[in-house]
Amino acid sequence: MTTRRRFNRLLASAFVTAPFGGSLAAQSPRSGGELTVAFDGASIVKFVLDPHNSLFAPHNRVFRSIYDSLVVLRADQTVGPWLARSWEISPDRRHYVFDLREDVLFHDGSRFDAAALKFNFDRVIDPNVATYARGELGPVVATEALAPHRLGVTLAEPFEPLLRNLSSTKLGIVSPAAIVKYGEGIGQNPVGTGPFRFTGLAAGAEIRLERNPDYRWAPSTSTLSGPAWLDRLTFKNVPEHSTRVAALQSGQVQVADLVPSQHLATIRSSPDLRLVQQELLNTNYALFVNPTRAPWDDPDLRRALRLAIDVDAIVRIVYLGSLARAWSPLSPSMFASAEQDLAGSWKPDPKQAADIFESKGWRRGADGVREKAGRKLTLGFVDAQGNREQRLDVVQLVRRQLAKIGVSLTIESQSGPLLVQRQLAGDYDISGGAQFADDPDVLRRVFAPESRNRLSVVQVEDDQLADLLRKAAREDEPEARKALYLRAQRRIVDEVYAIPIYVLLYNLALSSSAQGIVIDAHGFPHFHEAWLSG
């Protein structure tokens, strides 16, 4: 059966699966209590709790507790019902009709229906409003409320990623009444339909939620259909790794995320702590050399840079064997990842790197830094997220390795808005980043010029690559689609548009009292089924 024919069937209550992960305890859940999570918000100074306007992963880990999605991504990366009970797709794949649940309320008491969903879709496709979520809807051009709980969606052309993308936290469904009430302040006054409702925040410090007593519409993957067990859920921004772990060990919090490698052995050996982890579906963290900026517009020099970097050594030193080095732009578990195809496709060779620079006329100066025509061979690495996931530790080791062949790398810390301005202007030499996603179409949003969003760290202008990614977005046959993405990833690596570094396993360290917490298929935590023992 083709993918088109499979998806053209109505999806209803028959689609019920086991929950992602599983409960951590054999005890019976009990109601009550407050769970406190210390999460790595890195350099957050202001929480933006509007799912349509934040690509920052720490925000999105909070979103799932506040907002629901139209569909749910199962563990096998197929799609099941959530706020949409079922859907139909036209033979030309340009028209979707979603039948919605009729019992769903937003936290402010307003009703979720076709008009509310239309409001959300129209908001996302408005280029003046939802910049970061726009790519998730691809060529969606119009919506129509066909009945009180039936929405029609029209696309300019077929777009195979749509259903997967609708499961994303970036398309969490927001109360239209709240958007009208708060306007641009919705990011500090979030209102969704999720298992927890917002009660307050301290800017950059903590987010406070409480149980939504009306919740009765959990996704088909959940074992709990009604309200959450917890009374309250609090997220504390604790960007320093050791402080998060210390807060967990002292009992100040019951959960700490992104535990660094040097603390994992302690967590695993403690009788009072547990560790759960799962690969995050995303583009693997990579370094991006700006190919539009001289001298890095020369692909030979980009290849020389890569030859000078020993990724295996860096990942081993920084992550102590807890993470795998990456070969592909896409994380291994994502559909169409080229991780296996690209494994071993290059290896470090500092001597060859030095020879390439020499052949291009870049000679070592008195200070050891290469220069040509009076210009130093320098790389300015721009960053606005601090040492989240120990990324600056990675860059420090890259700097040392490049220095050995005469390339000087400097780290330039920027505020988020200034970094965006510089990236949009192409005013940087090298940057780093990853972008969580549900579908390999994320490559189009990163590398195709017309699709790049404001947070893109890439300035690639490659018609051949862009054409592959556009064709893949329209293709509905899985094997043909996979082949296109494999070719695209090979080109990204061959042209050194990206140097993949590591595969992220998102982790949570839990106290013995924290039960029922799972990590979903995206690699984000779910607290709907969480409860406190003892």
Walk me through what this model shows.
- InterPro entries: Peptide/Ni-bd, SBP_5, SBP_5_dom.
- Residues 1-25 form the signal peptide.
- Keywords: Signal, Transport.
- It comes from Methylosinus sporium.
- The chain is an alpha+beta fold and 534 residues long.
- It folds into two domains: 3-278 and 506-532, Periplasmic binding protein-like II (D-Maltodextrin-Binding Protein, domain 2); 285-503, Dipeptide-binding Protein, domain 3 (Roll), CATH 3.10.105.
- It is 28% helix and 22% strand.
- It is built from 16 helices and 26 strands.
- The strands form seven sheets. A seven-stranded mixed beta sheet has the order 8-9-10-1-11-22-12, with helices on both faces. Strands 14-21-13-20-18-19 form a six-stranded mixed beta sheet, covered by helices on one side. Strands 4-5-7-6 form a four-stranded antiparallel beta sheet.
- Helix 8 (299-307) runs antiparallel to helix 11 (350-359) and helix 15 packs antiparallel against helix 16 (478-494).
- The chain is globular, with a radius of gyration of 23 Å.
- It starts with a helix and ends with a strand.
- Residues 1-25 have low confidence and may be disordered.
Terminus-to-terminus distance: 51 Å
CATH topology title of the largest domain: D-Maltodextrin-Binding Protein, domain 2
Average pLDDT confidence is 90
* Helix content range: 25-40%
Reported CATH architecture of the largest domain: 3-Layer(aba) Sandwich
Uncertain residue ranges = 1-25
Number of domains: 2
Give the class-level CATH name of the largest domain.
Alpha Beta
Overall shape: globular
Q: Order of strands in the sheet with the most strands?
A: 8-9-10-1-11-22-12
